[in-house]
Amino acid sequence: AKTAEQLNVALKNTQSFGSLIPQWQIDEYARPSSKINTIRYPDTDWFDLTMRTCAQTITANYNVSGGSQRVKYFLSLGYNHEGSIFKDFSEWTAANFRYDRINYRSNLDFDVTRSTKLSVKVGGVLGIKDTPTDKTVSGMFNMMYSASPMMYPAYYPAWVLEEIPDTDYPDASGGRLSSPRTAYFGNIRTSLSTGEFEQTTDNKLYTDINFEQKLDFITKGLSVKANVSLSTYYSRISQTATNSNPTFYIDWNRYDAGDGNPWIYSAASEHVYENTPYAVTRGAMQNNYYVTFYWEGALNYNRTFGDHTVTALALFNQRENAKVVDFPYHSQGLVARATYDYKHKYLFECNIGYTGSEQFSPKNRYGFFPSVAVGWVPSQERFWKQAMPWWSKMKIRYSDGLVGSDSAAERWLYYTSYVSDSSGNITEDKSANLEAQWEEARKRDLGIEMGWLDNRLTLNLDLFDEKRDKMLISVDNTTPMWIGNTSKELNKGKIKKHGIELELSYRKQLNKDWTVFLGGNFSFNENRILYADDALYALAHQRK
Question: Parallel, antiparallel, or unpaired: how do β-strands 418-420 and 426-428 relate?
Fold first, then answer.
């Protein structure tokens, strides 16, 4: 009734006085005078009709661990169920939103010798997801939002056929699905009642083998490590259910005049008013499948000489990722790191990355990315402790380095090809960019960490700056049309950003059961595009 009253207000505002809903009809929506008028003048609360107050969630885990002096094991099995927030209107439980997941993990650790360790880890996730025909929760909410409570009845109960017989099918009985008529998104009650659904099965499997060998017989603190990993993932539509159900509405003008059959139906097949046979079929593999093979080998060194601690790392890795029918993606790199620590007062770290990407031609395939960091902890100095014992922590650190990115919309920027479409037409791909190379970002950070009163009160301050150069950007919109083609992405973009981050916190242990913690943070940063290859004379709102 309130909806009808508000509709009248809107009609008056548009001077549509001839379309106003009479008061007697508004009263029928509020308090129907007969049983049949509850269908003729519906007042449907779609949320109350179709939604539960809560959705069911079930979680269970089972873990087992143990072993001997040489072998240790860990087994884990978990189950998770997420039910639907929508009520069931179909006899088929799969015709509602539902997700079941089983996750498992198996770890085996072997102490082959006192200096040799081997571990084998296998884990994975199996997920089964059911969705009704309309596929998404958002689609269901769109139906509820768009459907007026007075637009049409949610469904026709069985008694309606007894009150208003279907003269074309006098033997028809039972309830009927309601046609959404002019509703933009449809009838949610009908969608949840048809029994149509799609079931998707996802499977992820992770396998890791780790090996570590200490080389103390060569020099103390030296060790070698190796890791081999194989990951697989696939997603497929495991089941699809179809069921063509006609929907109905009543022509009330025919009903009032007693002229003809008031039942109007939309029949999807020759079955007319009856449901078609329920068909559940096996689905097909989706374009969502990959296998990733990764391996790495590393040489580690960690040694302490009195007040001096030195660490070093040299690591080489390779990755191959095969996705569906794409040519496998490849990458590899070499990483080196060295650190030095003197009495936890003077700190130094140096990193070097030498990474290869298939995106670029052989002459630009590898990028060199060094970085360095230094730190000083004045609060560890004797003069600081004597002069300011209440100032428990003071650390100053600075880092400066390069990082790279090969991210681009196209693949193999140095390569072009000709492709044939379904009609047999051959077209040229975008022109190759033989000079494409790694994007580079120089990142700098100055940090100060402070603590007072045995570090109960702390303050951390960071000043950061980043300049990104040679960014790979599209030139589709800036290439003149008379050239006849465009190029794959070029290293033309530039941006910079800088800012400040501040974090203040207070923590105090009152007793063994209670701790007080207060904290807050503040940050400010500015991002600025220096060059984005915008079209000449482009307006400000049209620029990137």
Answer: antiparallel
Burial 52-71 (b: 16+ CB within 10 A, else e): eeeeeeeeeeeeeeeeeeee
Q: How many CB atoms lie within 10 A of CB 355?
A: 19
Calculate the dihedral angle through the C-alpha atoms of 480, 481, 484, 490, rounding to the nearest 10 degrees: 40
Q: Which of 175-184, 198-207, 390-399 has the lowest mean pLDDT?
A: 175-184
Of 127-136, 217-226, 300-309, 384-393, the one with minimum mean pLDDT is 127-136
Sign of CA pseudo-dihedral 82, 84, 89, 92: negative
For the chain, give me the number of helices (H) and strands (E)? 9, 23
Task: For residue 146, give the H/E element and its range.
Answer: helix 137-146
Least confident of 20-34, 210-224, 263-277, 387-401: 263-277
d(CA 155, CA 248): 9
Q: For 260, what's the count of Cα atoms within 13 Å in the CB-facing half-sphere?
A: 8
* The pLDDT value given to residue 311: 97
- C-beta of residue 453 within 8 angstroms of C-beta of residue 388: no
Model confidence at 269, pLDDT cuts 50, 70, 90, reads: very low
pLDDT band at 140 (very low <50, low <70, confident <90, very high): confident
What would the two tokens of residue 475 be?
């030139």
Residue 212, CA atoms < 13 Å, CB-side half-sphere: 16
Pairing label, strands 393-405, 457-473: unpaired
**What is the pairing mode between strands 116-132 and 418-420?**
unpaired
How many CB atoms are located within 10 Å of the residue 472 CB? 23
- Transcribe 478-520 into DSSP letters: TS-GGG-S-BSPEEEEEEEEEEEEEEEEEEEE-SSS-EEEEEE
* φ/ψ (deg, to 5) at 51: -110, 140
Identity of residue 229? S
- Between vectors from CA 475 to CA 470 and to CA 478, what angle results, nearest 5°? 125
Instruction: Select from 27, 9, 29, 28 the least CA-distant residue to 19.
Output: 9
Six-digit token string for 358: 């298939």
